[in-house]
Amino acid sequence: MPLRQPGRRPALFSKERSPPLKKAVINTAESIVVFDGVCNLCSSAVRFILNNDKAGRIRFAPLQSSLGQTLLEQHGIDPANARSFLLLRGPDAYLESDAALEVARDLGPWRWLRVFRVIPRSLRNRIYGLIARNRYRWFGKRDTCFVPTREQRARFLDGPGSLGNEAP
User: Quick check: is 147 in a domain?
Assistant: First the structure.
């Protein structure tokens, strides 16, 4: 099944979604970003999303959490060697540059970033991969996971009661 219909390019500023990488193993009403909680670049990206997703549509799970590791494994990503964040949106799953561009659709004035969909996925993902492989060297690494503020805490799914991750 082709990811895009032959001869058809997505409209640059449309609300049309990028084709998903594959079907998500769970179907949630909200979008979920699984990210590297000790990566400075990744944590900064999460803070950026938190500040710009005014509607609060996107929720988060650090890959260091049991939920984050489970979601990565269920989508064929080794949590010990994760070089991409995972976006789950409804029945679809997105990785690498597709995930980043799909997140942009919920970020109000930053929606224009979706213009980069015109760049072939293979080139976008090579650039994404270069940054992902070097993220700790270029941007640094924390000793502990990103800690959200009290107000942001409700948007994180790594605690008891989140998506079936019940406390004993």
Answer: yes
Find the DSSP H helices in the chain. Answer: 40-52, 66-74, 96-104, 121-139
Q: Are 32 and 87 in contact (CB under 8 A)?
A: yes
What's the pTM?
0.76
| pLDDT digit string, tens, across residues 97-139 | 999 999 998 898 898 998 999 999 999 999 999 999 999 899 9
Range of 123's domain?
A: 22-155
Identify the CATH number of the domain in which residue 62 sits.
3.40.30
Sequence-distant (6+) residues with CB within 8 A of 27 are: 90, 91
Q: Which residues of 61-73 are buried (b: 16+ CB within 10 A; e: fewer)?
A: bbbbbebbbbbbe
Q: Which amino acid is at 84?
A: S
- Amino acid type, 62: P
Length of the chain: 168
Rounded Cα gap, residues 64 and 51, in angstroms: 22
Is 168 part of a structural domain of the chain?
no
Structural domain includes residue 142: yes
Burial of 23 by CB count in 10 Å (0-12 exposed, 13-18 middle, 19+ buried)?
Answer: exposed
